[in-house]
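Quick note —
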Amino acid sequence: MIKRAKAISPSKLYWFSVCPLRYLLSTEGNLTVDLPSIPVAAIGTAVHRVIEQSSGVPTARAALKQRVRDQVEADLKRAAARNRVLDYVAERFGLDCVFSNQQLLGAVRLIERACPRTEDHLPGDHKGSGRATPSRQESESDVDSESLDIHGSMDRVTYNPDGTIEVEDFKTGRVLNEEGGLKQEYFYQMACYGLTLREKFPLAKITLRVIGPNDDWEAEFVSSMEASAKDLIDALDRSCPREGEFDQASLARIGLHCSSCSQRAACVVYEQSLKLTGFVSEPMGRVFDVFGSIDSVQSYSHGLSAITIRSRDGAFCRVSNIPTSIVGCIESSDAEFLCFSGVSSRMASSTEFPSNLEVVNLNEPSRSAFAFVMKPTT
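Predicted structure written out below.
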């Protein structure tokens, strides 16, 4: 059973429409163990901090890059205490091998796009005017609505003297979908922001903007967006009312979205599905989860080990380059294991049991399976 005790999260509301259990597992705190965050998540956190601390003073790209790097390194050092794959890669190869220079440059591009540094970017009435009524800008501004039961925070909101309001959210990845529209998960997030501001400022023109390193989206908050968000909020309140307790199996929706879900290690329905299939792969054939019995365990140099998994139909998969600290006291005793987020697979086709999964990629450490969990089932 799982209980809904918290207000609606704008940034996660979309996932309710895809899988109610995913939404509740991701919003209700540390109810279960989820997959560790990948290093790129630390870059996102660093970008938000640098943007929040920006003073509007022109900053050289090299200096911005160093500020992001310093923030990322601090975050990853803390995360390594909880993520043993990350800890191994950082200890052996250094943090520069955990994240790529390309990722850092993308972060710098986002900061540059999100932090205009000249008068040309100020509202027209204030360019060089010296007037005493500039726009009021707030970073990490709280989003609250008692009537809608929403709680979250906006990356940046600007209240202009003419009564208009601008909301901005920053994303380290792509903002637009393949059709050129805003991704659905971001649509509902921004619509929630619009809803809460509409309650407080019923007559204001509200502009919503999502900014990424290479693309962006902007639109006025209109009645159609309001209706879409309210419909989804109403559906959530009907099926998962506050303080109610719900059977997890009845809420789970298995599908392609599971490959991006850090909560799938706690999903009973997904676990049952994985046991039936033996492994799950993405549409392109990349294996990310494998189930079977432990056939053998082997330790080798550099503090790494490997396990061989036997599927129920007799096929074998070797999971190699696992930090020995994760393998622990596993013995080849036919114990059943779920290996989540194994990557860099080699398999004959997407319909066969994989022949090999590699956790730590010794040739390209930044492509290691940082979000890796082994879960005994028997």
